[in-house]
Write a structure and sequence with these properties.
77% helix, mainly alpha, 138 residues, elongated
């Protein structure tokens, strides 16, 4: 029973920390790479209306946020878990992948970014995290 509770806690901590890392990077992204003139990054309607103004550089930070958030969440879930570490890390990756797919429908982006984000930011980062905690925990 302790193992089950620990695994549930691992997933909850992974999701919470991964989401916080993702959001933290998104929040500071505008000060690192300023958005196009007149775009309010905190307003979904402003983003939708002005997406055509975004250049390649404006998509770097969202990709980093998605990748690092997934990585951090999967790494922590795997480290904390009592068993099924790889499965739980991949569950974090799948959860964030579903969020990424949902985001595609809410905020239309260029096809190249959608493909790069969906294919590269979620499952591969969860898998990479699992390689690291496998070495550290073993």
């Amino acid at each position: 029973m302790k193992a089950i509770i620990r695994n549930i806690v691992a997933v909850l901590v992974g999701l919470t920390v991964g989401s916080a890392v993702n959001m933290g990077i998104i929040i500071i992204s505008g000060s690192i790479i300023p958005p196009p003139e007149g775009v309010d990054l905190s307003n979904m309607e402003s983003l939708k209306a002005n997406m055509h103004l975004f250049e390649f550089r404006h998509f770097i930070m969202p990709f980093i946020a998605h990748a690092f958030g997934t990585f951090a969440g999967a790494l922590l879930a795997g480290i904390i878990a009592a068993s099924h570490r790889m499965k739980l890390a991949m569950a974090i990756g799948i959860f964030f992948l579903i969020g990424g797919i949902t985001n595609v429908f809410m905020l239309p982006s260029p096809v190249w970014f959608i493909i790069t984000d969906i294919v590269g930011a979620y499952i591969p980062m969860a898998w990479l995290a699992s390689l690291i905690f496998k070495k550290k925990v073993s």
